[in-house]
Each structure stands twice: as C-alpha cells, then as structure tokens.
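Session log. Operator J.P. requested a structure for one protein chain; no other inputs attached. Running the standard single-chain path with token output.
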Amino acid sequence: MTTSTLTPPAVPTVLPEPLRAPVVAPIVLWFDAIGRSDIGAVGGKGANLGELTRAGLPVPNGFVVTTAAYAEFMSANGLDERIRDELSRLEVDDTAKLRATADAIRSIIREASVPDTVRGPVLDAYRRLAELEQVDRPLVATRSSGTAEDTAAASFAGMFESFLNVRGEDALVARLKDCWASGFSARILFYRAKRQLPTEMPVAVVVQLMISSEKSGVMFTVDPALHDPRHVVIEAAWGLGEVVVGGMVTPDHYVVDKTSSRIIARTVARKEFMLLPDETAGGTRRIDLDAEPLATRPVLEDAELRALLELAKRTEAHYGVPQDIEFAIRGDRTFLVQTRPITALGPATPTPPEPAEGSPIVRGLGASPGLVSGIVRVIAEPSEGAKLQQGEILVARRTSPDWVPVMRRAAAIVTDSGGMTSHASIVSRELGIPCVVGTAHATTRLKDGMLVTVDAGAGVIFAGAPGRTLAAPESAVTEAHEPALAAPVVTATRLYVNLAEPERADEIASRDVDGVGLLRAEFMLLSALDNQHPRRLLESGRAEEFVTRMSDGLRIFGKAFAPRPVVYRAMDFRSNEVRGLEGGADFEPVEDNPMIGYRGCYR
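Structure written below.
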C-alpha cells in the first residue's frame, strides 16, 4: 500500500489587506453616492432620494447622516441598555404607559451629547453644501429616515418627524437628535408592535436643501382609490407640502391620463391657509387665505400638470412599481422631494350604485373604497379615542399619526379636510378601512349616535342602514366593493399570497387565490413568545404554552384555506432581533453586524 503526504499551504505571516483593515462605515453619504440597495445605511427615505438623484430626476441637493452615526451616538453614550430596559416595560395597549415609555426614551436621546466622531463629519457636509449652493448657513430640511420606512412592506405614513427651515450648525445637530428620538414616539412604537416589527430600529437622517415652494403636493402613479394604472392622481396646495401630506387643508385634485396626457378630472378646493418658511425664527408660518383670491384659485396650470405627469411616469418606470411622490414648485422649476412605493393596492374597484335613495348628508372624496354602516362618533383629538367603540364610524376634522391606534378600531373614517394623499387616506388604504376625506362639513353635519352608511367608493354618506337593522354600534357591517364575476379566469399559473396576520386569513381566503405561498413565521413567533427570549421561555417551563399559541395561529390559516396549500416559512432569527426580547441579553452576543455573526454566516 502506497501512501503519500500532502504538504499544507504555507500560512502567510501577514494577513491580506482586506482582512487586516476593518471596514469603517461612513457617517455621511451624499445623495449621488447611494441608491435603493443602501436602505440599511440610509433608510427608506434616503435610499429613494439617492435613487432619484442617480436617475437624473430633479432632486434638491443633500446628504444622509447614516445609521452608522446613529449606532456611534448610541454606543458613545451607552444608551442601548437604558433604552432596552425601557422597552422591556412597553405596554402598547395602555395609552398612558405607552406614552410614558416613549417620553422616557426620547428624553434619554435628547439629553445625550453627539460625539465628535459624528458631529465633525455632519458639520463638514453642511459646510460643503453651503459652498456648493453658494449660500451662507443654508436652510435645510432634516427628515428621519427609518430602515423599514417607505418600503413596500410598511409606509410608516407621516410617523417619523421632519423639521423644516433648519439654519446653522447648532440647530442642525439639535434636529439630528430630534430625528433619532422620533423613532421612539408613541405612535411608532404602537405601529411597530401591531405590525409585529422590532421595537428598536436604527434611524438615518436626511439633510436636504430647503425649497421655499410656491406650490407643492403629492402624486400617485396609480389611482389609489380605483386602483386604475391608466391614471396619475395629483393633489396640490399653495406653499409648503406639509399641508397636503398632513391633511391640514383639502387640496386641489386632478386626474390625468397617462397615455394621452388628457386632464380627466379637475376639482378646485377651498384652501383655507398655506405654510411658508419663517426665514427669521426657522420652522414655518401660517398665512390665512380666507379673504384671498388664492383660496379658490386653481393651484396648477395645464402645462404644470403635464410636466408633473412626465416626472411621475419617469419615476414609476425607473422603479418598476407604482409610486407615491412628493413635489415642490418654485418659479419655473419643479423638484421631487420624496418618493415611496404605494403600500396598499389591489384589483381595480368599480363604484357600485348608491346604497340608498335621497340626497347624501355629506359628500367628499372616496379615498379608500368600501361600503359600511355604523354609528357615528365625532372625535376632536386623539386623546378622546376611548370614546370610539369597535365598529363605529370615526368622524374627525383630519387625522395625523397620533390617531393610528384609534383608526384601527373604526369601521370607516370620514374627515373634513384632506385629499387622496393625506394621512387618513394612506393609513385607511393600508388598514383596509373605507375612508372619505375632504367633506368640509362632516364634523358638523354628522352627530354622535347617528346611524349612517358610508359609501367610500362614491365618496358619500347617507342616513340609516338600508336593508339592515343594527342592534348596537359594534355590529357595523362592512362590505368590500368587489366586481361581480361570472366565473374565475383559469390560467396555467397558480396564484399564491403572502400572509402574516391571522385576522386577515378568512378575508384573503375568500378571494380567487390558490393558497398561501409564504406564511411568515416571524409575526406569529413574536406574538407566541410573549416578548420572552425562546430560551428564557424554556427555562420558565412555558414550552407547552408556546406550542399551543403557535398551533392555534397555524390552525386559523389552515382552516381558512383548506384544502388549498399553506407554505410555512421558518424564521431565521438574528442576534439583534432577539436580544431585545426579555432575557435576550443573557443568551445573545452584542454584534455590530448580525448578518455575518453568531446567527448569520457562522450558523
């Protein structure tokens, strides 16, 4: 028998350069250096602005303070454990405790100092922006950019804070901390918990040259109410765009055909006021328009509408999916200041006949289709949200992110102001709740206890509930506006859906789908774990309790879709995702990059 000896390769005495030199994540990245693949470093908002810039679309110049800066700030001040300690006591369904936790965490962040390793690069970039624009101490907007924000999975519509007309180095650093702190507001903590997202997520900050716009607004590259891809919906108001996205005023509403550029619909609203930059004090100032011709004058001219249409088409073509785009116009220049994928679209939804005879009590703009009958509850502030019972009709002047916990209990939402792109509209579509906005008179014409029917497809509210008797407010009935189909279309391709929330299983199973192609384990697991690390749960003898919760959740999906298949995907836990759970610090390492760490590529 012959044997041979293999000589092992010589081990180098000096490691190759890539292994010797640690990669240092940049604190600041300019728009022209980033794109949609950089969400982890610059957040959704920052990634989209970089993508637009590199695509040659008109974007005001700026840079992003990255998530590496956020991590450096947290580490330098030893904030991680303090914040996790506060989050361990989080109770999102107790409003007082939710706000107390949020306030405590934000105070911790605002009271900490920004280390020189972050402050230096940020101020250097601000000075460079001043040189490029040839302006001393330029006015900028600082906008929080979350790593799960403005994505197809979740919009976080209007929840992260923005600060306009920030001037000077000290003010910029202060607003930087405010943006970081906004990632722990009560509304975001609630939203993350209900969407079963991690409660702690890094936040980047966009610093962008401020455009003192004369007119501004939002456009959808698909009609968001009718889900019609042939049309672009544009809404606009005077001054800064915050009045449109915040639903503060009812904007002008335009529908433009993508192919012919024909203006199909034009609704000129009464704009009560506008916001302009406050050049002296910073921030914004309100200008009332009640006695001004601008209140009823159309905001956009035909040429501007067609120019916006072309920008909308270019943006949608670049991304390949429908987009929700914010724009600002000053003089003869139009800028795109933000874009995000539209998060709630389905099949085209025709408007059915009116549900009752006679004149509607209130008319408005149908922003999220559906037909529902229920009891009216008029609410002035989100702090009065306890008045709204499950299944009642929420009537408010407008909504903002603070209203989200209240909105989730409503059978339908009706607002005085706002347009198709307001907060109420976007969140209603995301939650699947019928919504009518821009009614002007809903809070005065609809009274507590009235029984009404909301036809959000037609944008009208009628008295009573035709053909139904409602015994109590919680017995409100909701119907989707589904087109009548003679028979389903048979194709060789099977249509599967992605699902995560058990409460939607019956609704989705009733549609013409062939099963669940991806049942995401993450959401059910986080709920079944009851905020406990898996090993802590085992140590406490609660394994059977966990198994019962998981099987109960899976049974809901199986029962709804049987005999169609349901494909379950196991969760690929990473250390940072479970360290924040109760007891997680005892079992999980602290890793700068969990993707290549203990539960990453070494697994």
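Operator note: Confidence is low (pLDDT under 50) at residues 1-23, 149-158, 347-357, 468-490.
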